Amino acid sequence: MNTILLTLIVFITAFAGAAIIHPYLVRFAKTKDIVDNPNTRKLQLRPVPVLGGLAIFFGIVIGLIAANIVADTTPLFVVVGCMMIMTYVGALDDVLDISPIVRLVWQIVTVLILIYIGDFSLNNFHGLWGIEALPQYISTPLTIIAVVGIINALNLLDGADGLFSIFCISVCAIYGAIFLYVGDYPLFTLAVASAGALIPFLLHNAFGIESKMFGGDGGSLQLGVTLSVFVMEVICRPEYGQIATQNNMALVPFVLATLSMPVFDTLRVMTARIARGTSPLIGDKTHLHHLFIDLGISHISTAVLISTLNLMVVGAWYLSNQMDCSAETQLYVVIATSLILNWGIYYGVKLLDRLLPEQMESVRVWKRNHRPSRRLFDFMRKFVDKM
């Protein structure tokens, strides 16, 4: 198979599909008042359309259809169907603000479809703590809990311009390389299509003024399913286990590393809310991206920084693998690195705020007054709004 031709066809088609439909969705959302309004918990200063998830989904589907010129993408039928369910549920939540219970029920239904129809699951620990294949009565609830957790962690990550899309593009690149290496072309195609469709959304989301649009729950829930499928594919398919065994690669620590920032950020935020005696479902401004923006770091720099921290965790896992560490040690390295780079940074800055309030405020003022030149940023805004 000509992988270069496949990659170009899928990427360009997905990019073009998302880019073409984006302005139409912006106009429709503004006309129908389907917008995210500012409040004390959110970072934007004016209403922003929230149908970006539809643009991403449209681009992905167009890319997968075009891929059939050189590859068979029919094995992705169930996955695309589950992505569509989550896109629809998320878009309804953006428009009608549906109950969290209703949204949770549909997430569980979607996971059950992936398990029993798509044959995806977290059914093997690949030797971690001496555990290999898991019986279905354990793997099914474990898969439901893990995938619902991933979906909602991705949803909570979507709090700064460009963060959700840059993070997802980086993770799609990691898994796309793995799928290409193994010859898993359907999932490789999905990874390429997802990255291609996310790029025009990223440009409008990070730089647009009139064309700015949020992914909304429709986008985050949809990509949560996509990344969860990538994780389950690596865990449950025997060919990945064989390659991992040959190279002493612990798969459970690896997949945790690829999603470390949203997962550990969500765990920290939920734990802190419960410790304060408040509901873990009530939103606040205690995520890592809120901390960086409060320090005076721009949205796009925050997005790059958090995605880089995530890649650093993957790098720590890789180093532990190259040092022939056991599966357990690789897991502990991932957990320790994630805690340091998320919990450590967050509570470290908060501690400095208490101990050195005047100095920290001076840092914030300096950072806000010494941002890089806005010439490129202003050029990108004018360019993107004309797309």
Verbal overview:
By secondary structure, this protein is an all-alpha fold. The longest helix has 29 residues. The chain is globular, with a radius of gyration of 21 Å. It has a two-stranded antiparallel ribbon. The chain contains 16 helices and two strands. The model has no long low-confidence stretch (mean pLDDT 90). Helix content is 74%, strand content 1%.
| Share in helix | over 70%
SS class: mainly alpha
- Count of discrete structural domains: 1
Mean pLDDT: 90
- The proportion of strand residues reads under 5%
- What's the tally of helices? 16
Features of the shown structure:
mainly alpha; 1% strand; 2 strands; 387 residues; single chain; 74% helix
Please render the helix and strand layout as text.
Blueprint (H helix, E strand, L loop, with lengths): L2 H29 L3 E2 L11 E2 L2 H16 L9 H20 L3 H17 L19 H22 L5 H20 L2 H23 L8 H21 L1 H9 L4 H8 L1 H16 L12 H7 L4 H24 L4 H29 L1 H13 L5 H11 L2
Antiparallel strand pairs: 1-2
Helix pairs in contact: 1-2, 1-7, 2-3, 2-7, 2-8, 3-4, 3-8, 4-5, 5-8, 5-11, 6-7, 6-8, 6-13, 10-13, 10-14, 11-14, 12-13, 13-14, 14-15
Care to give the gist of this entry?
Helices cover 74% and strands 1% of the residues. With 387 residues, the protein is mainly alpha-helical.
